[in-house]
Specification:
about 55 residues; 3 helices; about 60% helix; mainly alpha
Length: about 55
């Protein structure tokens, strides 16, 4: 029972819409997490596509 509560808490921490790169809260973070598996915002995703270093 407590495992399910801990799992839900972990999911809520993952979906906090804060970008791992620039630390800005944006709605596109959760969308990109679902699409690509990375917690990055739309702006960081574009910059990583153009400048992959």
């Amino acid at each position: 029972m407590t495992d399910k509560i801990e799992d839900k808490a972990n999911i809520n921490r993952e979906l906090n819409n804060i970008c791992d790169e620039c630390k800005v809260e944006d709605e596109s973070v959760s969308q990109n997490l679902i699409l690509t598996g990375y917690k990055i915002c739309k702006s960081c995703r574009v910059s990583k596509t153009i400048f992959p270093f």
